[in-house]
């Protein structure tokens, strides 16, 4: 063989080797997992298996939810964690004491490629809370194994049950977390065969399996006895961000086949059930038993805009062991509906049955209140606001010390007409907003130095060459943060404000000891900028470009406590948003629409509140979530989902929170008609105060109160007692814990 021919052969062999090697490497990169990944996945799964014995499935539902949150959080994605908290019957744990979950024995770990649509849906369920990866970067693995059970009185394995876990990796923290779990004798059932079975039965539901292969979520027994009929609840592998679809299959000689139902109209055929929740709608698939036969029923709970339950629908089906179909039962439907109605009706108490104290002011009208430890600051005035009448003057501020049982300070704003409608207070300052002109609703901001009792303006109508109107205020240490609308100075303030043509919104930061601040209007371009200086810690300013409907940054929520502030905003042009500012021991958090961080953005929108322990509480798909303030340095937001309470407003308007309670204020359904002393009639609505305990997850209602403003601080509840007649306003306060809340 010539050297030339030999060289060609060698080159060809090398090329083939490189191509083959590259193909193998590409396949490994696409389908394989590194040794380190497998070790991490195994560690998560095995440690999760050891934690199962800590969750008692026979405990009360709220205790199960609490245990799930405590013991499973390190191992589960937020999506699965919330699903189990809100549906504890789906969660794994121990049942009884004779045979306890012991460990998970892993048989195999393999990478799987979930469809792009599934990735998007999973992003909607979990990424917006705790996972930052793009759908193209998502890494998912399937773990097959056995969950072992051990006898409680002996150190030996009692039984093994097949288990499959879907585990996902966060692309920033690189932590693996369990996203789906199904444990039953059918866990290893062929997903492709199940897809075909469901499609053949449905005749037209082409979208079965569009997100992932259907699987047996749990096994069920249709009948009791020595030879029970078995089957499985099947996840159909379809649905969306808010809903999953299920059906039920029966085991016929080891093969799963779809079961038929007989509905209330006598029609016979397969039924498919949806399960999921939004703000106004919650559907759930439930199992029960009647005369040793399986009952399957779907419940639908509907709510109004305030979150109160308006309607409950239940369709229950009882297994007929002779015909082998599920038949609609009107009796069972009514039974389960009544049980749900009782579940969603919290305990109600009257104010007169509680131990409370009352503060009576020097003036008949009270508007805004603020709490600082054992002190209450509130605005008051001589003219009480009444329905269908012009607002009165509220230009006094009084401070009451609860421990001392007396007033310690008072100040008066020297304005002919004013309404102090917002107050913030700490040890050194009392910051307040004033509505000064009833016609054009000009609003300004003032501060009281508590050492000198001197009142000084903070943000007035003319501010840095603009007309401004104060929308909200925050007090953090020695800094006042003032959310303002600003306008170009054309004509008088009255003419400008009446026109409604504002330039934009901004948050000004004023250092109260010397009144200095930076110009919040000196930047061009959309977005919000910030900086921290040695003399003035925190947010300097929000800066927005010229107002128009298609290209504008707008602040949507502005919340604060005495040592932290949080702001959300929407930006239509999706330009740069701030990432966050840390100052002292507190944290200022802002919207960041990037997928890289899940702190605010698409999950925390218009409505949220801050608890005193610096936790953000917000609505997420009709559920209430709680998460701590933390920096945006790459760590994900740690979210705890709270079991739903009927009377806690999911939109969190007229809602406040402390470390231990969430309190919502509602109009009662029953109106009261009365007359003023001058003979004019009026109709007013008593209020109800809903108190949700963050430790017990129970709600209790104070009914028939005339509350105008509500605050909660630790265990203490405060509200303005405001009747629409000539009765002077007062402040009611009580200890929630001592009163059994």
Task: Briefly characterize the structure.
The protein is an alpha+beta fold.
Describe the structure.
The protein is an alpha+beta fold. The protein has eight helices and 47 strands. Among the domains are: 29-183, Nuclear Transport Factor 2, Chain: A; 185-345, no CATH class.
Give a quick account of the main beta sheet: strands, pairing sense, barrel closure. Answer: 11 strands, mixed
Give the N-to-C terminal Cα separation: 95 Å
Strand content: 35-45%
Low-confidence stretches: 1-30, 115-137, 523-553, 571-606, 631-636
What average pLDDT do the residues reach? 76
CA-atom Rg in angstroms: 31 Å
Which word captures the global form? elongated
* Helix content class: 10-25%
Which structural class fits the helix and strand makeup? alpha+beta
């Amino acid at each position: 063989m010539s050297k030339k021919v030999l060289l060609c052969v060698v080159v060809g062999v090398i090329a083939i080797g490189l191509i083959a090697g590259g193909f193998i490497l590409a396949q490994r990169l696409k389908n394989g997992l590194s040794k380190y990944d497998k070790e991490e996945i195994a560690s998560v799964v095995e440690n999760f298996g050891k934690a199962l014995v800590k969750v008692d499935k026979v405990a009360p539902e709220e205790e199960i939810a609490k245990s799930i949150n405590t013991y499973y959080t390190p191992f589960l994605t937020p999506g699965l964690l919330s699903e189990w908290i809100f549906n504890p019957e789906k969660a794994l744990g121990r049942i009884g004491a004779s045979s306890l979950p012991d460990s998970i024995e892993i048989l195999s770990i393999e990478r799987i490629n979930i469809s792009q649509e599934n990735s998007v849906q999973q992003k909607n369920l979990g990424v917006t809370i705790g996972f930052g990866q793009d759908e193209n970067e998502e890494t998912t693995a399937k773990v097959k194994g056995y969950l072992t059970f051990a006898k409680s009185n002996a150190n030996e394995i009692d039984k093994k049950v097949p288990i499959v876990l879907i585990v996902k990796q966060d692309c920033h923290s690189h932590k693996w977390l369990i996203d789906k779990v199904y444990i039953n004798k059918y866990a290893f059932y062929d997903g492709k065969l199940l897809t075909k079975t469901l499609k053949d039965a449905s005749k037209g539901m082409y979208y079965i399996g569009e997100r992932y292969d259907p699987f047996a979520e749990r096994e069920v027994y249709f009948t009791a006895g020595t030879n029970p009929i078995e089957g499985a609840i099947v996840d159909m592998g379809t649905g969306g961000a808010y809903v999953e679809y299920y059906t039920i299959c029966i085991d016929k000689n080891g093969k799963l086949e779809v079961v038929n139902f007989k509905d209330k109209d006598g029609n016979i055929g397969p039924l498919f059930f949806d399960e999921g929740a939004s703000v106004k709608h919650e559907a759930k698939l439930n199992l029960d038993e009647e005369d040793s036969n399986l009952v399957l029923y779907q419940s639908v709970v509907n709510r109004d805009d305030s979150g109160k339950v308006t309607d409950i629908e239940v369709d229950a089906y009882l297994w007929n062991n002779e015909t082998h179909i599920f038949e609609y039962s009107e009796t069972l439907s009514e039974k389960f509906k009544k049980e749900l109605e009782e579940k969603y009706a919290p305990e109600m108490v009257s104010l007169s049955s509680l131990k409370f104290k009352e503060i009576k002011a020097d003036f008949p009208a009270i508007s805004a209140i603020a709490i600082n430890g054992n002190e209450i600051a509130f605005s008051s005035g001589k003219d009480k606001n009444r329905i269908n009448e012009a607002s009165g003057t509220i230009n006094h501020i009084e401070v009451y010390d609860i421990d001392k049982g007396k007033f310690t300070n008072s100040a008066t704003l020297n304005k002919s007409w004013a309404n102090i409608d917002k107050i913030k207070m700490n040890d050194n300052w009392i910051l307040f907003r004033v509505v000064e002109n009833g016609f054009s609703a000009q609003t300004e901001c003032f501060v009281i130095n508590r050492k000198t009792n001197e009142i000084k303006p903070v943000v007035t109508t003319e501010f840095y060459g603009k007309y401004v109107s104060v929308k909200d205020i925050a007090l953090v240490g020695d800094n006042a943060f003032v959310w303002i609308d600003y306008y170009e100075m054309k004509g008088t303030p009255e003419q400008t404000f009446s026109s409604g043509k504002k330039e934009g919104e901004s948050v000004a930061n004023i250092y109260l000891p010397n009144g200095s601040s930076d110009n919040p209007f000196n930047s061009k371009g959309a977005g919000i900028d910030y900086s921290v200086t040695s003399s003035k810690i925190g947010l300097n300013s929000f800066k927005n470009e010229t107002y128009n409907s298609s290209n504008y940054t707008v602040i949507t929520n502005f919340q604060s406590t005495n040592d932290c502030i949080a702001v959300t905003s929407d930006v239509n042009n999706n330009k740069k948003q701030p990432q966050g500012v840390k100052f002292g021991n507190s944290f200022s958090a802002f919207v960041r629409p990037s997928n890289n961080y899940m702190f605010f953005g698409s999950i925390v929108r218009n409505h949220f509140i801050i608890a005193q322990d610096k936790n953000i509480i917000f609505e997420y798909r009709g559920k209430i979530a709680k998460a701590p303030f933390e920096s945006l340095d790459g760590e994900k937001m740690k979210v705890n989902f709270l079991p739903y309470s009927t009377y806690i407003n999911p939109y969190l308007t007229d809602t406040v929170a402390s470390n231990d309670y969430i309190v919502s204020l509602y109009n009662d359904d029953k109106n009261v008609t009365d007359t003023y002393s001058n003979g004019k009639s009026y109709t007013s609505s008593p209020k109800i105060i809903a108190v949700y305990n963050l430790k017990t997850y129970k709600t209790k209602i104070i009914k028939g109160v005339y509350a105008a403003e509500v605050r909660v601080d630790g265990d203490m509840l405060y509200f303005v007692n405001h009747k629409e007649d000539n009765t002077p306003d007062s402040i009611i306060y009580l200890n929630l814990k001592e009163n059994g809340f």
